[in-house]
Amino acid sequence: MTRPSPAAALNGVQVGHICDRCNRGIRTGDKAVAYGTYYERGGWTLRRVWCDECADRAISNETDGADEVLVEAVYWQGKLVSVTAIARSRPSN
Ligand SMILES: [Zn+2]
Question: Can you give the residue ranges of the DUF8112 domain (predicted)?
Fold first, then answer.
């Protein structure tokens, strides 16, 4: 089965507005970066959200066997919009 594109799947998804690294609030219109992983049951699921300043730009600690993605987006009233993938780590098998 082909997996949906993470950018498409995460566009419009609801997120918290607190940066997971500096605990500052992300405001509507701010850029944000989010990390997500793919689950067979739940599809693409966001695990972390960072403000533009704290954001990771690459997946540094790859999880074995996991399909992971970093997306850049605009935070807009509780949701991520204009989502684009900036890094991806797919299972090697
Ligand atoms: Zn931050």
Answer: 17-73
